[in-house]
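pls ignore typos typing on phone
LBFN2T5F + seq
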Amino acid sequence: MKVQLVKVHGSGNTFYLYEALYDDKLDYVNMAKQLCNPSINGGADGLLLVLPSDIADAKMRVINADGSEASMCGNGLRCVARHVCEKLEIDEAIIETMHACLTVRKEAPIFEQLPTYSVEISPISFELSSLPLFLEDKQELHHERIAAFSEDIPFTAVSVPNPHLIGIVEKKYIENTSHQQQLAAFLNSDNEYCPNGVNVSYVLPISNDEIFVRTYERGVGFTNACGTAMTASALISTMENIVSGNLITVYNPGGFVQCSVEQYNDKWKLSLIGNATIVGYYEIEYSHNKIEFIDCVITEEQVQYDKCNIYTENRLRSFTQ
Ligand SMILES: N[C@@H](CCC[C@H](N)C(=O)O)C(=O)O
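k done
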């Protein structure tokens, strides 16, 4: 069977997007594992499925590189938002995800001409059972040191609704990734704390409205960026008075986004604003569970995005030197 795919990214978090217009009985887990293999066409961090929905403009499913399914994906949702809005010729849409129907919207570019979308990030829970994360008698974890994780990094746990463990760190933990690598690999292996794994982010405060976030993603490993992690990090940084104001700029190894963090009557309202870049259009042959790339048309959009990367690198250099 011939399958049409779009390669997309949000902050360098890269996905193949496939729109299934009918029940095609394809093995999406097998497809994701092959498409994400870095030795084939550069790989990707996941497969985004755009499916018909009875209650929204479309439904998104997210398959991680290892074949596990995630309940949400912020960077991926921006790319799905663009796909659906352009197809339906609308500027705002509702996308059904595993646990919520979320509003997505076309926005003014965050940098030069970059196609930019905002996506709602919800529901939010601090209950450890929502991740789940098991820590003796604790119900929640807020900016606290856990000896088994680190002697000096305070961690917060939150689900949005995919699970995140977020540490506020000093520069040495950003310059050298080994602590994050070891902790995240442990929490994503067979372990007593996070039986379903967890996305682990290290956050470096930069200014009163800027942070840097690097994430080791469950089901993938280190990625250029994780949208839900950056939004959750902006929330935690706000709650801990590390940043102030409603719009936080979040730099990451693949670019930058803006996260809107607002509070109404004790309830947090989060959204993620950033690029939704189309890298290329691909045709594959998928038969006997094997993928073969047949054709591709690469767009000019990455050239434009590279300029944004140069801007981000220069900006980051000014913080880190
Ligand atoms: N990159 C994503 C999150 C993808 C899912 C994650 N790996 C998980 O398993 O929770 C994002 O942009 O939010």
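Residues 2-118+275-320 form a domain with the Diaminopimelate Epimerase; Chain A, domain 1 fold (CATH 3.10.310.10). The chain has a mean pLDDT of 96. more later
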